[in-house]
Design brief:
about 425 residues; binds NADP nicotinamide-adenine-dinucleotide phosphate
Length: about 425
């Protein structure tokens, strides 16, 4: 049997595990594919670096382009990350007739259109299961298993770092920076945690999920993004009192008339009885609501070398089988071409905590501010008294723009000393 030759671009956390699995599982992979998978070469930036991978030194090269387009290569696996040179490498590989597998969420979210267009033009397989939620089989279920259904909503915890931090804040009462320090010490957060804690990573994944779920083109720039750096221990305590927990969520939803989609990544309260509330540590989980399938939940390790390599290898086996049978995997369809609506039109519920003067008429003045903007109040309670008086308000569903206008007005009221926190509430109705 002629082997299928695999070019590996990148040999870091994920790439080194791909090398290990290709070696350790060689006979199983051969049986599953119908031909051996052989490493043709490994492109890296620093060839002299110690990597602890069982690969012949002669396989390493710094010329990723030459490797990706080499005549004898069948499959190109890109695990370098970032926009360039990854994009040029993938485009050149597809032009040269290779099947490609990538874990690159940043590229797919920023410029998936170019990469998908090349796959269509050259008839190439383009698989990227590992780009969202690591090991969890999620993109192929959305692209293939749910192709006969209508997805209404995808609600996901897709960033392990922020889930770890928020989970620690919830279970130990720690503040954001202490929880971040702990996450960094344990290797759950990078030295520069910006991409995670400011929500860029979750926004990129939300764009990819929304595109697949709604058969439309969504880029990271379309996604409303807020990070978790402003979340305080008192927000977490407020959520707890409401029977909720704070999670960093990627939310993709169709509008009620089905004519547009909303895509956002931000922290939100969800009821503790919601299936996503129990997702702790650095785990990921994605909750999908579809018309006929109902509610589905996907759960597992969202990152890490071996879990991510598992998803990469699954894609390698799929594209290898396609090559042998002369078939091509399904394209990500964008026929629906739904526009992304502005964040101001997103409709959800809100939890608003106000430090107020403890005087008669406060409640009425605050209620009028909400009413003037058409935001109806579901529940209100007062905590503390005198200097410490705080009003906690939970609204019914309202457009984001209406809530923003309400908050602006609340800031200007004399009886409101401070708007202590404003947080969206997702999932089912919170207990009142
Ligand atoms: N790590 C995870 O848990 C995880 C989870 C899901 C998805 N992903 C995605 O997987 C991809 C890889 O992540 P990673 O964590 O494995 O990254 P990483 O550890 O930083 O590894 C990147 C690799 O790319 C190589 N590289 C960088 N620039 C290159 C160039 N110009 N030419 C050739 N090689 C180059 C590096 O070479 P040197 O080793 O010589 O520096 C390194 O081997 C990213 O797209 C990431 O978003 C990662």
């Amino acid at each position: 049997m002629e082997p299928l030759k695999v070019a590996l671009l990148g040999c870091g956390n994920v790439g080194s595990e791909v090398v290990r699995l290709l070696g350790e599982q060689a006979s199983d992979l051969t049986a599953r594919v119908g031909a051996p998978l052989e490493l043709a070469g490994i492109a890296v930036r620093r060839p002299g670096r110690k990597r602890g991978v069982a690969a012949d030194a002669s396989l390493f090269t710094t010329d990723a382009m030459a490797l990706a387009t080499r005549d004898d290569v069948d499959i190109v696996v890109e695990v370098i990350g970032g926009i360039e040179p990854a994009r040029s490498l993938l485009l050149a590989a597809m032009k040269a007739g290779k099947s490609v597998v990538t874990a690159n969420k940043a590229l797919l979210a920023a410029d998936g259109a170019t990469v998908h267009a090349a796959a269509a033009e050259y008839g190439a397989d383009l698989y990227y299961e590992a780009s969202v939620a690591g090991a969890i089989p999620l993109l192929r279920p959305l692209r293939e298993s749910l192709a006969g259904d209508r997805v209404h909503r995808v609600l996901g915890i897709v960033n392990g770092t922020t889930n770890y931090i928020l989970d620690k804040m919830d279970t130990s009462g720690a503040g954001f920076s202490d929880a971040l320090d702990e996450a960094q010490e344990l290797g759950y957060a990078e030295a520069d945690p910006t991409a995670d804690v400011e929500g860029f990573d979750a926004a990129a994944k939300a764009a990819i999920l929304a595109g697949l779920a709604f058969h439309s083109r969504v880029t990271a720039a379309d996604v409303h993004r807020e990070g978790i750096t402003e979340i305080t221990a008192s927000d977490i305590a407020s959520a707890r009192e409401m029977g909720c927990v704070v999670k960093m969520l990627a939310i993709c939803e169709k509008s009620e008339d089905g004519r547009s989609v909303g895509v956002r990544a931000h922290p939100a309260m969800i009821p503790r009885r919601h299936p996503l509330a129990g997702v702790g540590e650095a785990y990921n989980a994605v909750f999908v609501e579809a018309e006929s399938a109902g509610r589905l939940m996907f759960y597992g390790a969202g990152a890490g070398g071996a879990p991510t390599a598992s998803a990469v290898l699954g894609d390698v086996v799929a594209v290898a089988r396609n090559r042998l049978s002369g078939a091509r995997g399904p394209e990500a369809s964008t026929y629906a071409d739904l526009p992304v609506r502005p964040m101001g039109e997103a409709v959800t519920r809100y939890h608003v905590a106000l430090d107020v003067a403890d005087t008669p008429g406060v409640l009425a003045a605050v209620a009028q501010a909400f009413a003037r903007h058409g935001v109806s109040i579901q529940a209100v309670r007062q905590e503390g008294s005198g200097e410490d008086a705080q009003l906690v308000i939970v609204t019914h569903r309202a457009p984001d723009a209406a809530l923003a206008a309400t908050v602006t007005e609340l800031h200007g009221l004399d009886i409101v000393r401070a708007v202590a926190s404003v947080m969206r509430v997702e999932g089912e109705d919170p207990p009142t």
